Amino acid sequence: MIRVGTSGWTYRPWHGDFYPRGTRDDLAHLSRRLATVEVNATFYGPRKESDYLRWHSTTPDDFVFALKAPREVTHNRRLRDASALVAEFLSSGISLLGNKLGPILWQLPASLRYDPVLLAEFLPLLPAANRHALEVRHSSYYNDQFIDQLTEHRVALVTSDSPGIWPCLSASTSDFSYYRLHGDTELYTSRYTDEALDAWAAQIRTPPGDAYVYLDNTMAGAAPWDAMRLAGRLRDPYLPGDAQAPDAQAPDAQ
């Protein structure tokens, strides 16, 4: 199963474009056009149980949420002494998503270098009952020992595409893969070309197991259109370019 979605769903530039004027529920609209979404709100602070229940009830039965883990763990504590905070997040109501709960994303800050001892302390805190993915942003993670640690704990290594800003690592370390596409030529903003999406579609189809792909070029409204274009390619890899999803074309302004 390959699922393609966006990083978040509440952005002003999407209104009057991806979201038609008068759209009452952004998540409901998005979830009927894409198969998954990455929740950014959980990165900034805890959510209420009512939020998880509302997200569950708003979306189709086969929709999946990936949750971005709290920055208190990844950025403030920088993974140190994180046991209580990880347990608090995992018991904060995320289970109310039921079968719509997908992977949990742990995104590390760009200044955090690879430390095998730190990872050896942190990774066992992630219960096997959930799927976990780790995104790194420092070149020191080009390290075989790091890959071995992720594989031992069945944590997916995020393949992160940025315009040459952060390393783009790729390795099969779990029974699923996780991709974050942050922008083709300009971080968080630029639209992906047909050629770029063709190349990503070919790469995403290669590993065995499930794949979760999130377009994070959200700031100017490209993400949902690019997600639909990429999903079209993955549904029918034999059609070139945008022929897969004629209804998923962004307006010329995009």
TrEMBL record:
PANTHER family named among the record's database cross-references: DUF72 DOMAIN-CONTAINING PROTEIN, UNCHARACTERIZED PROTEIN YECE
Organism: Actinokineospora diospyrosa
Tree of life domain: Bacteria
Cross-referenced InterPro entries: DUF72 (IPR002763), UPF0759_sf (IPR036520)
Xref: Pfam families: DUF72
Name this protein carries in UniProt: Uncharacterized conserved protein YecE, DUF72 family
